[in-house]
Amino acid sequence: MKSLHRILVSFGIVACLAGVYFVMQKHVPPAKKQEEVTRKKRYSGADKQMSYLFQTKAYPDPTYLNDKWMAAWEHAQAMKRPKAYNPAARTPGGNWSQVSGLNVGRVLTVAIDPNNSNKIFAGSASGGIWKSENAGGNWSYVNVGLPVLGVPAIAFHPTNSNIIIAGTGEVYRSDTSNIGFNVWKARGSYGIGIIRSTDGGNTWTQVLYKSYSNLFGVQRLVFDPNNSNTVYACTTHGLFKSTDAGATWSTTPMLDGKYVSDVLIRRGSSNTIVAAVGNLTNTGKGIYKTTNGGSSWTHVTGTGFPSVFHGFVRLAAHPTNADVIFASVGMGVTTTNNHRSYTDNELYKSSNFGSNWTVKNNSLHANFQHWFAHAIAVNPGNGNKIILGGVKLYRYTDGTGSSGSVENIHGSLHDDIHDVVFDPNNSNILYVACDGGVYRTTNINGANAGDVVFQTRNSGLEIAQFYASLGVSKLTANRFIGGLQDNGVWAYNNGSWSKRLGGDGGPSAIAPNSDNTVLASNDALTVNRSTGGVTGSFSTRLGSWAFVADDRTAFMAPIAFAPSDPSIAYAASDNLHRSTSGGNTWTNGTYSSANRYIEAQYKTAVTLAVSPTNPNKVYVSLSPFSQRVDNKLNVTGGPTLRKTTNADAATPTWTTVSGGLPNHFIMDIAIKPNNDDSIMVALGGYGDSHIWLSGDGGATWVNRGIGLPDVPFNAIVFDPVHPTVVYAGSDLGIYVSPDLGLHWFDFNDGFSDATMVFDLQITADNRIVAATHGKGLMIGDLADISSLPVNIISFTGARKNSYNELRWKVTDEHNVARYEIERRVDNGTFVKVGQVTALNNTGIHTYTFDDNIANVAGTNFYYRLKIVDIDNSYEYSSVVLLKVHRPGKFEILGNPITAGSSMRLTLPAPQTVTFRLFDMKGRLIKVNKVSASAGANTYSFNMFGMLATGQYVVEAITPDERFTKRIVKH
């Protein structure tokens, strides 16, 4: 059985963030009613999802994730199959198609073409960019050809609608210092900077990419209303500027504040700008203003703007009075007995473009989403009418002074508002981007709140964020049930979707011997059961541990039926919970008496798998982290895999079987149907192989992920027809191996761009279904494995003096004509660099090839073998990556130094560089850290300030090298 890839509870969210959702319930109300109930009683759960996305990928090294993501993308692209091939001799690519109709999911932003109100772009949370040509009537995916997931910002050029820019990376936290594991919270997803289209969104290029230790995300993109060639990007690492409509960007931020959330440029004066800075625990939070185009900035303090607030700020301008602006401020939180209350007004107004501020009453709207989801827009037809979004949506009427009135117009809208946008050509039409997708009203100016009616505009918007495990019928084709982030539990039956539970949906399972018995879960160990199938009525059978013990369970606790005895079911927290009645009643389910730990208290389960032949043999992987009541962390050792063969005992005996595995979270476990000691696991994180095989129940492990991209893997499953065929799901789609991981092939035909796959299951009619986190549910055909012309035992490479040595060991060659060696350098394409004639031996033989690269520029050298048969059909091997160190060069341009002297640092690739200045006694005077590009980078000595006469030593330190130069100042 598959299981949830949610690691635990959040990695210590800051004190202003609550940790749980649901109070304990005896029965689960119907979907809509339950959602209303739970939302009234829970606090923000977005921190759990954000932390989940971060920690599964970051542990144990959370630095430079975006760089690692891009490197993995390059490797994944190198594994793509050619367009021309012989289908009879190749592993097919998946033939994936959408299980369509589940049009729910989180949307972060909406952008409307100012010259055509029917043309709208939407940025999703982890499903990329979507486009509508009929005002949101239906949507289609925008294939940008890059690994884009979360898109919080999209902007049309004001006068040329063919130019569109988009900012990537849903990130809510940017810290300036590492304070241990408690800094790993509310991070979010990968970003690749800013991308741009000049043909209306048909093709895209990457125009801004920044390499930082922390995740780099883009919150807002804003064109200057006075000069459409100038555009600003609000990012986690400052405010960046472009003066050519987004084609190129400044290399350093013009405002180096941490987490710039919004910016406004005054109409009529491009030099006058205000920016909002900070989120969560960032220092220096608030409003910053410049009147000289950004040459200098003033932190606006003591002028009515709050000195303390816990979230971020969004800004909006009055449509006719250029001096009037408004701010939506994620305000304070009061904690009493573990319960938090939100009482402060959150709308502020300035009549002198940000120099002074007045708080507006009746304006509590961001609520517990102060750090995550709130928005503001001023009606372009009436500057006194303001739309405020937070947990709910409100219409606010501005009065004199601090007065104002508010109307709740939320209606049937989904909670958690990220963006509100007026139609630029009709001020009576408003679009809302929220955790339920896109909504639209054509009567935002209705006389009464009840006149404002919103309709969903989600047709074709396939952006659902599934969690593992997906419940799949073993008896009936096309019958599934699964849980979604913030969108409940949904069932697919007879070609249609229906919502079964509200809240945050989680792991689900269908009994293998009967479609009538179904388990579906919510967060905090809430397990619900139906005896009427996936469309039946659910009741809670294992109660929530929220508020009382949610530091002892994952955000989403794994569940599974025993394949050989479906009356037995399991769930896991830091204890193993067992049912002998098909999930109706459970042992060990009360937190106050649950003390039979799988390994240790607070060490929470990540995933579990039950033997296909022995219902008492269970494998469980564990996380070392859980969140305490005080929002700090319990930290217990490292990730482990545990096994018991007597799960039916009052106190099961557990054995650790993860010795020899890399130090990463074990995200999924697959057990061979005919041998429950033959298991494969999928690992998260970066820096090590991600697929491992054991034939002795975990006593020893063999690396079977060689050749795969270095990216987190989340799912693994055996082919039921061909037990040596294995499918593995990752943050970059799916790969298939015909021989238990010795060789891997791309299996992503039908997938679009980057797709995070969280679960893989085999259907009753022997197809394969993929639960994605951001692109809904996909279904495809199993691989039609044909005989390879040769068995490649290994393919490796080694860096020599002036050449790269390639070596491959083969056996059982049949009718192979030759091996062609293909090379790709950095971001280039594969080209043939040589070939070796095949010997067609039946035994084992080793081939070698030396590739002279003395005159080939580049750092990353990718190699693959093209195995050409005598009939000219061919196969590709896995890809070998060899990194070539190219030394840098550090020069002082003018020494003794003068006002015109500078330093030149030439690097082989973009890197972070630390400059340090010492006096001749070895005392450190000044440190500067910069992001340097490939090639020559010139820096003025002004970075160290005014230097007194004397001698100094300057150091330039990169991740690979240290340069030292002595300088003299007269």
Low-confidence sequence ranges: 1-42, 83-90, 177-182
Second-tier CATH architecture of the domain at 31-67 and 463-652 and 757-781: 7 Propeller
Number of helices: 3
CATH class of the domain at 31-67 and 463-652 and 757-781 equals Mainly Beta
Given helix and strand content, the structural type is mainly beta
- Mean pLDDT across the residues is 89
Q: Tell me the span between the first and last alpha carbons.
A: 74 Å
Under CATH, the topology of the domain at 31-67 and 463-652 and 757-781 can be stated as Methylamine Dehydrogenase, Chain H
- Radius of gyration from CA coordinates: 29 Å
Task: Give the overall silhouette.
Answer: globular
Approximate helicity band? under 10%
- Strand content range: 35-45%
Query: Major sheet: size, sense and barrel closure?
Result: 5 strands, antiparallel
| Beta strands, count | 73
Q: How is this fold's topology laid out?
A:
Blueprint lengths: L30 H11 L4 H13 L6 H14 L18 E2 L8 E6 L7 E5 L4 E4 L7 E3 L10 E4 L7 E4 L26 E4 L7 E4 L9 E7 L2 E9 L2 E5 L17 E6 L7 E5 L8 E5 L7 E3 L12 E5 L7 E5 L4 E3 L2 E3 L5 E4 L7 E3 L14 E4 L6 E5 L3 E6 L5 E5 L8 E7 L2 E9 L2 E5 L13 E2 L14 E2 L6 E6 L3 E6 L2 E6 L3 E6 L7 E5 L3 E5 L8 E4 L16 E3 L7 E4 L3 E4 L25 E6 L7 E5 L2 E3 L5 E3 L4 E5 L10 E2 L9 E7 L2 E9 L7 E4 L7 E2 L9 E6 L7 E5 L2 E5 L7 E2 L10 E6 L4 E6 L4 E5 L9 E9 L3 E9 L4 E10 L5 E7 L7 E8 L7 E10 L4 E3 L3 E4 L5 E5 L8 E6 L3 E9 L4 E9 L2 E6 L9 E8 L4 E8 L1
Antiparallel strand pairs: 1-58, 2-3, 3-4, 4-5, 6-7, 7-8, 8-9, 10-11, 11-12, 13-14, 14-15, 15-16, 17-18, 18-21, 19-20, 21-22, 23-24, 24-25, 25-26, 27-28, 28-29, 29-30, 31-32, 32-33, 33-34, 35-36, 36-37, 37-38, 39-40, 40-41, 42-43, 43-46, 44-45, 46-47, 48-49, 49-50, 50-51, 52-53, 53-54, 54-55, ...
